[in-house]
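#random but structural
TW: two for the price of one
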Amino acid sequence: MSSHRREFLQGVGGLAAAGFALGTLQVGGGRAEASERDRAVPAIGGVAFDAFTLLDFRALPATAERLFPGQGVRFEELWRTRLFDYSWLRVLGGQYRDFEAVSADAFGFAAAALKLSPPAAVRREYLETVVQLPTWPEVPAALARLRAAGLKLAFLSNFTPAMLASIAHRTGLDRVMDPPLSTDAVRSYKPDPRAYQLAVDAFRLPKERIAFVAHGGWDAAGAGWFGFRTYWINRVGLPREELGVTPVATLPSLSGLPGEVGAVEPAPSGPR
């Protein structure tokens, strides 16, 4: 073989290897290609979920409208915005309070902003709506496929441990998922890297083998910064946050997640 031909073949081989590593070059379709890609991208071993990717949050604005007719949409918006603002501000200021306490503070602000004076029973009903949310319809089937593939599964949420335990027990998710992970353990909130580290420690897997499933675009960005392979469940069609990181995939529901992370649905068994 001439030196020119050998250099040419070596160059093609280098380009192909780079293409496999980046997932951008399609060369052939045989076993060699799949094997090379598998070596370049570690297999997913665990999946961590933000709570609202599994819980149908539509009851929150509906409850607000029932409790505060004509002002429910605005109330829920104010409450939700202040909830995140207060969480992050308290972490930055070294004044941590857990999610339940911050939720109550945000409720007080929203009520004051709208000049409402709800009794304690109304305040309690609204705040307890969060732990009474049902799962999205596709959740049981999606989690069953992920569990059948041998993946570790857990909430990774800003909710308190008590909230997560109550939700998991009430919905039956504790039968298919590992113990929930609350950021309260590190007295912080996502997107603090210490919050995402909880999944690494609990799953005993490197971050490259963990998929994080985000509800908020900001959470998808935070998990991506941390090094997780991030999947954004964007049910309401929001634009991607301009934070310099892109999810591996953006999905309208949880239904497509098992296929995305390699939890292939088993073929039906035929007659013997």
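TW: number two ↓
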Amino acid sequence: MSERDIDDALRQAASAPDAMDPALLERISGSIRSSLAPVRPLPSAWLLVSGLFLICAAVALAGAAHLGLYGIHKLSGTEGALIFPALAIFTWAAALLAVGQMMPGSPRRLSPPSLLACGGLGLVAIFASLFHDYRIADRFVPQGVACLVAGLLHAVPAGLASWLLLRRGFAVNPVAAGLATGTLASLAGVTMLELHCPNLEALHVMFWHTAVIPLSALAGALLARLFARRR
């Protein structure tokens, strides 16, 4: 078959009359139109970010107030002035990233894994520079597990509330969105621990408190992947 024959065949196919029944097309169009409804637009990005930040702050403060604000009373002025602004900046950055993951086309200067790594290592560095008691206590593991569990338990309501706020968005990459939201939720747990926990041993804070972040982020990514597969 020559190129001319192919061109003739394509022209004939393009000029062939539509074999679809007009009545059938009208029924399809009618069924589509009947299901269409106006969609309420999402709030602006800054409102969503502010809402996520306030959710994490509220969960952390409520949890610490319930368990006791022993940690903040034991921290020195310098320690508190470094730890809590760092946590606030990390939380705001995580909120920005979580909102960006749920709004296709949003500018993204940092990926969720990069934020997780940079933020987690940054907190470890701050803790290492502030706390110098590297003795391993007899109850290192029991006390650490108790803090880890408490931090994760506070990440759960923060993550659920964040998901409710962002549920009308659309995640192009659900796993990345889950990782970002899980990282954000973890910071509610870490902030609560810094307000509540009076154990200022360096290894306890550097290991058990910051362990909340990767575990919560991983849980968010796994849950997002599971829900995406069920759709």
